[in-house]
Amino acid sequence: MRPVRVDFARPSRWPGRWIVALGVVIGLVSCWQGELAWRAWHRLAESRERTLILQTALDAAVGRLRRAEASASAPAYARDALAIARTSSFDVGGALRSVEAAQMAGAKTVSIDIDAESRTVSIDLEVAHADMATAYVEALNAGDDRRPWTLSRLQAQGGGALAAIRGEFP
Predict the structure, then answer these.
(1) What is the pTM of this model?
(2) Whole-angstrom Cα distance, residue 102 to residue 163?
(3) What's the CA angle centered on 53, arms 47 and 54, to 5 degrees?
(4) Quick check: 166 and 150 in contact, CB under 8 A?
(5) Which residues pair with residue 154 across a beta bridge?
(6) pLDDT tens string 43-69
(7) Fewer CB atoms inside 10 Å of the end CB: C or N, the chain?
């Protein structure tokens, strides 16, 4: 037997070189992305620091403003003048005229409470029977389209009843 000489082809070096080159490219891209991420993180940290400084300054300014508002109150004479202006703008005479005009037999006015601050008038009545209270409210509202008077409470006792009427005026 004779030996057979076979010349096998040597493996190419190109696949190894391509793999190395690809690894180098991937490494360079990774470094570049890492640098971009680091810069973005650094900018974010600076932004958070500036935000914290501005928030602290804003909180201090709001605190100073609230302290200034708390210390600056209206003088007592201004509050009294406002109460007098509200009282004088309330038409007490008109409310009392409607009470006088609504007088009827069987209804006795017990008390009249005038609150100029809230612009209300409360009337307590003793009436002979419950229907009389409704008729009295109708007489108070006669000629007024707004109907400011309302029956707020009716309490029957014995032979008569107690009625509470409330008038709200704008």
Answers:
(1) 0.52
(2) 14
(3) 90
(4) yes
(5) 163
(6) 999 999 999 999 999 999 999 998 888
(7) N
